[in-house]
Amino acid sequence: MIVPEIEAIKILNSGEVAAVPTETVYGLAGLIDHPEALQKIFKVKARPFFDPLIVHVADLDQAKTLFLNFSKPLHALAQKFWPGPLTLVAAKAPQVSDLITSSLPTVAVRSPRHPIALNILKATGPFAAPSANRFGKTSPTMASHVLEEFGGKVPVVDGGASEIGIESTVVEVTEEAFKILRPGQITEKDLKPIADQFGLKISEGLAAPNSPGQLKHHYQPDVPLVWVKANPDREKILSLLSKPSAKFVELKLSNEPAIAARLLYSELRELSRDPANIILFEPDRFPWSRVSKDLLDRLSKAATLKL
Ligand code: TXA
Ligand code: MG
Q1: CA distance 275 to 105
Q2: Among 111, 163, 117, residue whose Cα is nearest residue 142
Q3: How many of the other CB atoms lie within 10 Å of CB of 277?
Q4: CB count in 10 Å sphere of residue 245
Q5: Which atom of ligand 1 is nearest to the CA of 133?
């Protein structure tokens, strides 16, 4: 059901979960000092416990209680990019629950830019929130998507369509480097001035095993998405997918990367409504396909097949 912001605050304070809008995607929130809420997040999403959660904060002060040491580079990144689509990973403070971090020694933290999320955070204190979708599936960018995902059972605050549309950039901050664990709207180029200021390298930690945003398949729509070159062999696709017949539909996205990102997940959901569909994505059609690592990462993992 759709609930007003004030009701979501009450629900969260009572140790229950609620979905809230952010500028990236909708999140399924539970307060970090309510273990029953954290457990419920995993249960509702059918998410494995080895996949750690991002803690959301209203501001730097709330974040200070979560990191073991709010190092200067960490502080500089938070100062520059928060509130916004950047998640920072660093050594956790002892009181941060293993349920949040999957027993990792680090914690992931971000301050979202959506006014509703910020209002709720100011009232409740930090909440953990993964994207509000069933595990491995397409993230929600509208309140109606969340209602669909969980059969209307999870209360949702409607904050309109998410402005960015794909998940935050995840960066682990170590003593040597900024490791990009998940690409997003904030890119290596944006991070570089701060890395340079502290003499740190920037690396891609995409191969690291501990971040299931890094699993090979993720973000999957309910029908197959096939990554193709021009004029794909449709008979071959049917045979590889073991489908006798299907309707091929093309994934049409904007040539503007920001607009393509904003609409990506809604498009995938729309094209998944007919279970007979097979979605074809031809990256070469889009001018951003050589540069937009974030879009390619999501589409690559959403793809059942790559030809
Ligand atoms: O934009 C976003 O980040 C959205 C909104 C709701 O804020 N949230 C989101 O959460 O995408 P989720 O759970 O779907 O993705 C969190 C990612 C996962 O890939 C997870 O493995 C990684 O962050 N992560 C969390 N804690 C980590 C840690 N300590 N070390 C490495 N990766 C971590
Ligand atoms: Mg997710």
Answers
A1: 42
A2: 163
A3: 19
A4: 7
A5: 14
Tens digits of residue pLDDT in 261-302? 999 999 999 999 999 999 999 999 999 999 999 999 999 999
Say whether 94 sits in a helix, a strand or coil.
coil
User: Ligand 1, residues 106, 141, 142, 170: which to mutate, most atoms within 8 A of Cβ?
Assistant: 170
Distance in angstroms (rounded) separating the CA atoms of residues 201 and 285: 33
DSSP-derived letter for residue 182 is E
* Residue 223 Ramachandran class (φ > 0 left, ψ -120 to 50 alpha, else beta): beta
| Identity at 34, one-letter amino acid code | H
Which pair of tokens denotes residue 219?
Answer: 């973000």
Residue 98 has which token pair?
């293993």
Q: Which of 22, 131, 154 to mutate to test the pocket of ligand 1 (most atoms within 8 A of CB)?
A: 131
CB atoms within 10 A of CB 222: 15
Provide the 10 A C-beta neighbour count for residue 104.
17
Q: What pTM, to 2 d.p., does this model score? A: 0.95
Distance separating alpha carbons of residues 241 and 123, to the nearest angstrom = 49
Report the alpha-carbon distance of residue 78 to residue 110 in Å, rounded. 8
Instruction: Encode pLDDT of 174-195 as tens digits.
Output: 999 999 999 999 999 999 999 9
Tell me the CB-side half-sphere exposure of residue 178, using CA atoms within 13 A. 33
CA neighbor of 166 nearest in space, from 154, 183, 190: 183
- In 3D space, the residue among 65, 129, 118 whose CA is nearest the CA of residue 96 turns out to be 65
Which residues, chain by chain, have CB under 5 Å from ion ligand 2?
A: 131
Give the pair of three-digit tokens for residue 264: 């990506």
